[in-house]
């Protein structure tokens, strides 16, 4: 499809040129792009899921290599792949179940399904998981009440699950596509509302007269703090300005307009102030499978200071930031060196960069990394849209959201 | 992203105001520099396709234009136009959404001026456009500059151009910028940012700058800057193209067009400047700037146009610690060392114990063992065999260096040159398979790679390939290539524009020169050395002319007064007004009047045949009072005596023997005081013998005066 092709290229270009900033926007745009791709994908009669997966995989690989540092892209691609697998599975199980069941009217099915399509898919997925896979710890824990109800669901809810039993291939493929798109829509919705879900938990964590420290600026953090304020919690916020981009300044402005008592400090004053702080709340760029955090530069220092004074270090992360990969040399490989001009004015120092004298080798080098890696042992708690989690629990969440088959998107050996 | 939104928002509001008058933002990209600085390489490949950190220069320019929301680019190709068009066709640039690249081809343009005239004839430019050359590397956002330009245009239709400038201090010693261009001196109005003066070829030998006096009087405030760098990014109104057409002799964008507009005050066109601070912009004008800009890219000042961001079709590259960029599939021996700030291209092989630092190595290169590479730019598929040593050199595609060959700093090896075994290529040599073109014209402006020579040239490599041996001897055993001879004029400047740093010996020499100049300054005890003195001599000439004129006028007035019997007061009044209009001191009036009197007396005596002394007496006693108002001090009187001396020596030799008599007479008439005469005598004491003639004549008189004054005491 030339249309999708152009869209994909356009998005690739934007990623390559670093024109998209922020993992939330990136995640949303990726999900929307993949939704378009799926809806336009022509599906063969056999192995429909395989074809979809292949198509998404191919595009995903390009997207990931366009900006390997923006992990949200890869996360969303893997989520979508996982969704396809799950939906396919549910259709298969349902069709198996459907064979044993009596045929019900298609019309009824459709009405039912349209009512609560996702629920049904999820239920089927859960059922499929328990039937087709060896039970994992997760399924055991989660589905204790549910597995007992499987019978129930397959019998009483059986009429809603029937969806597949239609032997008409066309309608089944349409269904697969339809289900996948529905679930992707749900995912987009999730990304859009993750702020609110996280913010809802604010009152449980921020108490009266506490002092909160944060660094730089994060949309999630603003929502979180404001939600606590709205619940009439009275607390103070220390904002470390977050050199060299100084987004802390905008955060402070925002907080003050919402009526929060705010103190701006320099990054270098964090250690001096940390003893007065009750909790550090920060946003993240990505959360790795081991519970480590890729975060705006400067946060590792804050985390270390917090650990020294036994201050809880809380990371807010929407579920789209959860990355199923383990970090290897993250300071270098998962980092992006930005332009030194954010740190120094080129004109001021132009005479320090005179290559026509001396050995010709540059004597001045300005390094401006965008991210820090905070190891899991420094993180006290992750607050995601599904609740608070320990760093050590991250791998479990990942097993829920991603399929192990998709962890490696690139089929050929990694370039580089 | 943010900027893009901003641009869209701006566009929308403009639409509301200008009501569908929005034209796409256009750019003209000159894919030809119309100079020969990159020869011999540019004989075979257009400059814009030369790799800069492994990506052709034009890709940087196009990627920047695209990211700056330019929608239509017209690429003007002249020399090697086919290569450029082929490249663009193959690249992804021609099939981008919202970004169209159109090539305009011409074979007979010899300058930027010609190119713009041709584009004007094509009539493709509808609104304001960006004018850049294809060797510009920048990451600036144009939104703000464009906005400023448009607002100025609304207020003043004559604001035709906005130049982008950036701070960059030139070196005190070499008097050139870090990009190897000459020190640039600009005068800018600090409030309106209007460009008032532009000089990029300040006279090196004098290190002075002459500004017109009127220039200072017309502009109430101006800042004179020498630490700005011209980025060669211009935002132009469509008038610029028609201006080039109207002035068919405009060739060079800066030397002719900008200076032309600044000098021409009839049309009143104005040029403004826009200074960028945090963004980067530079143009690759010579090998020195090639080196500087490459290093800036590796140091990421041009972000996001850096090797590990795929802004064009460049290969994916990973950035490692210490600024080392590695593409995929590199074979590197464990014992080799790759130093900081190095780029290594795809499929490159590096042998044992090889040391590489501060260099760019292209794709598919084969580097043997025990090779030392420092500060070199090695393009694609270059073979460097064991034991070679390279410092600060450029090696084009397909170059082969046989074992043990050495490149001294500043060497440029053009395409497919083979350097023979153990051959040492001397500093600053340029080696090519093609013979050096004969210079037809010394005018730099015309030294372009014109299409005729180019045609011959492109057929040459084949011939050379067949008859390797006749040119091989130049570059060592089994070598291939000719070392171009460097003309003496160029040789002096070679070190300025080379890729290699300026040798220490040169720097010391230059520092000494600068110090000497400083000493001269100190001795002169002035801040504006030669300049001031020059203008002094000039103004001396002026003053002399003026005073002669004045004297004549005074004389005419006096004679008229004598002939028409005008009242003395009236003559004084007239002389006063003359004095004001010529801006003369009272002593000048005194001497001029005195001169006129003496002349009258002389004429009278000649005409009437009377005794000169008597005539003088008559005239002085009758008109002596005229001198009174002007003889206010001893100095004025001395001036009169000196004038008299002059008369005696020059115009009225008859007076010479009568000097003492007349002097005595003047003394008697109270026109000249005793004190003045004595001072005059004192002053003359130190003078030359020739000057003392009259003092000696008056010796007795002076003695008498002296005695008289003593008696009085």
Count of DSSP helices of chain A? Answer: 18
Please state the oligomeric state of the protein chains shown. Answer: heterodimer
Order of helices and strands of chain A: HHHHHHHHHHHHEHEHEHEEEHEHEEEH
The biggest sheet of chain B, with number of strands, parallel, antiparallel or mixed sense and barrel status, is: 9 strands, mixed
User: Based on CA inertia axes, which overall geometry of chain A fits?
Assistant: globular
Per the CATH scheme, the topology name of the largest domain in chain B is Spore Coat Polysaccharide Biosynthesis Protein SpsA, Chain A
What is the number of helical segments of chain B per DSSP (H or I, 4+ residues)?
A: 22
The 3D shape of chain B can be described as elongated
Question: What would you give as the CATH superfamily of the largest domain in chain B?
Answer: Spore Coat Polysaccharide Biosynthesis Protein SpsA, Chain A
What's the CATH class label of the largest domain in chain B? Answer: Alpha Beta
**Helicity range of the residues of chain A?**
40-55%
In short:
The complex is a heterodimer of chains A (416) and B (713). Chain A has helices at 2-16, 23-40, 48-66, 71-100, 106-115, 117-132, 137-142, 144-148, 150-155, 158-161, 169-200, 202-205, 219-230, 247-257, 270-273, 299-308, 330-333, 394-401, and strands at residues 211-215, 236-240, 261-265, 279-283, 286-287, 293-296, 313-316, 371-374, 381-384, 387-389.
